[in-house]
Amino acid sequence: MQAGLETQRRDAMRLGYRDGVAAALGDVVAHLLRTEQAQRRWRGDLLAQVRELLAATSRHADTMLAVLDEVLDGLPEAGADAAPDAPLTLVLPLRLKVRAAAIRERVQAVCQAPLKIEYRTAGERISVHRAGAVIEYDPDDFVAHAEVALAFDAHPARDDLHALLAPALASLHERVSELTRDTEATDTARTTAALPVIPDTSLERYTDEFERD
Hints:
Elements: H1 2-59, H2 61-73, H3 75-78, E1 88-93, H4 100-110, E2 115-120, E3 126-130, E4 133-137, H5 139-150, H6 158-194, H7 202-212
Parallel strand pairs: 1-2
Antiparallel strand pairs: 1-3, 3-4
Helix pairs in contact: 1-5, 1-6, 2-4
């Protein structure tokens, strides 16, 4: 009776532990999935905000003028082989037309060549042409390169996950192995107890035959 109760207790403990571990692992997996989904939404929202900020900044009039200053700084080197009277053509977005006087003053401060300013009705690209040399700035290209530079992989590598989970999984594996060994020992004991006992009658047959002789 006592052995049977002990066996039932061990079985209940093993099954309860197994079900508890399964439920806990299910909760952990569900939490990880929710966390991953939330992280992806956060990452998407963050990149969308960064993209919007980059687009607005790269197209701001002051940014365009700062870029134009940088382009003009490189103009003497780019047009070093140009004749002094070679015309300079500046193509700007139409919305910068209101800054035409300030832009003309900036250009003439670094280059005394004849200046022609044109305006494009589509796109935000700035182009400077002189004697076959072309210098351009496109906000869309700037944003694209910035997005590549900001790209990151928020998913940890499998090796990192294995290293994080290894200690917990090792202790869990040891406990499961221990319960498995106990179960196997219990099953072996049950099988041994259930085997029928067959009496050995060989000695009796030998004795009977000896007496008849």
